[in-house]
Amino acid sequence: MQLSMSIRLPIGSVRSLAGEIAPATAPARRAWPRRLLILAGVGAVAILGRAHVGEFVHEMSRVLHVNWHLVVLAAALETGSVTGYVLLLHRMVSRANPRLRLLDSYDMTLAGAAATRLLPTAGLGGVALTVWALRARGVRAKDLAERLIAFLLVLYGVYMAALLASGVAVAIGWVHVSAGQGLGLVGAGVAGGILALVGIAFTAPGRVASVLGRLGEGSGRVGSISRHAAARLPVLGAAAARAWSELRRPHPALLGALAWWAFDIGVLATMLHAFDVRLSLAALVLAYFLGTMFNMLPVPGSLSGGLVASLVALGAPAGAAIAAVLSYRALAVWLPAGPGVVSLVRLRSSVAARREPSKRRGTPAPRSAAPQIAVAA
Fold it and tell me: Within 13 Å of residue 1, how many CA atoms lie on the same side as its CB?
């Protein structure tokens, strides 16, 4: 009886939490483009699996019997990656409320991993949960938006810098690759273009506002998007100033941005080593960051498929690459998600405890505003 009650409690908490942080309404979208993408993705995976299923099964069987020590090492590296994220989040976002402890940042990080997998948050996932938790603790929406965007600028600044450096190294031949040297140009071009656009947006906001203003005078989708972007320029500018202030006076916690990516790449490298795949460091970093960009596609398994495609294009054997990526994803996704359910329940309980005195006093609790802030980020 006690066991069944302990199982039902987290499930009930997760279900009720879904209603609190999920967007109340979602814009209507055409379903057929997503369905076509899903069918295309499933077809590509089926073709690849059919061609290499025997090799894949052999590699998985071998590693499960021989390389358990590498699995343990990969789990330790994933723990280091999550620790880096917790430290960076606490430094740049959670300090908005001085009463928040490092444990609260840990709970938001791990609960975010669980929310991404378990809750219908319309793709907002961990960001929505972080916003929900901090708004419930009285953090003002404007302050939270600035802090969260500054956090993302630092975190993904490392992403783009690493993609640019590894792309250049592969493209100009500093690092030898058996195949896919052209991917270096793709990676360097994408990273350089994004960094240039972000740099222009934050160093010349007046010009950007002028361009968006002229575009916003028109009708249609372009005009609507331009007006939407122009309205958020002040928040983006304040977030950039906050991020630059942190970088000018660096705190050791900022190394969490490096740890988040570096240790996660270490998990992938360990799994590749377990399946006897040998790539240079620059090629591995390039494959990792190019592959993870496929996560923007609204297709199940897009990130794993992107990683496999990038690794194979850079010379990795297809069967071993598939096995390594699936093993990496199992560790990187589900290892944090398990304890994340515990953090999810604990986070909800602490928020409920904070809201109860407000209800007795008759003052409304702060609105979540998760969808609006997360979309702006």
Answer: 0
